[in-house]
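Issue 218. Parser rejects a valid record. Input:
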Amino acid sequence: MTIPLIAEDTKLRRPVALKLLPFEFSQSPEAKERFVREAHAVAAALAFWFEWDWEAAGKSFDRVLALNPGDAMSHGTRGWFFLNRRRFNQAILEINQALELDPLMPLYYGWSVGLRWSVGKPDEALRELVKALEIDPNMGLAYFHGGVAYFLKGQLDEAGDTLEKGKKLFAPPGWMEGVHGIILSIMGDRDKAARILEEMIEAKRTVKNVSAVCIAWLAGNVGNLDMAFECLDTAYEERDILMCFIHVYTATFCPAIAADPRFKKLLAKMKLDI
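Output the parser choked on:
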């Protein structure tokens, strides 16, 4: 129904997808309404994940869900937006709504695990992990979030085992390795943690989307704060999606970074000093 094109975002200087509604469909009120709803959903996601315009993202999420309360994906994504805003109870309500609207979507179960440990409920997260793996036993994202939930409970062996299982499956590059390295550092195996850090740095030379945030957290844990902040600068330039939550996660994964004055300046720069 739409015509996809490649365009350029002149603000961020990157290629973007552009959709046009053909004339014949533009005469249909139903087609125009669907097109407008989709446009608002895309605008909300872009403002949140890539433009980091938190105010615009919030308004766009409100608009798209007013137009289409049954949009499960926008409810789920707004859960992460509310986490960014530290509105923790609302984050859980949103992911619950997404699951109610689409109870067979594996992604929402993985998100449910992640949002629950993110708001300080690792026991609930692990209960959700069971459901997630029943829906999709090969969901790498669920293993990642489950590993972090075990980490928060202090069950470091279980956390490491869960992350090791997840490494064999798909997950954002660097997430599993970075958190596993942090766990090893905390357990006293700093040599192995340092080797993982070296491997991640080497991998990033060829795989650009290896998370610079995860490298930063691990670098901070092995005592290299200057490298950590260099990596956070890289993450800022690359629009690493974990940057949306550094004000929520960093004290958990690397207290030394969170306590550094440079971190407070970074949060202010991103308008995350809330």
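Fixed in the parser; the record now loads. The longest strand covers residues 3-9.
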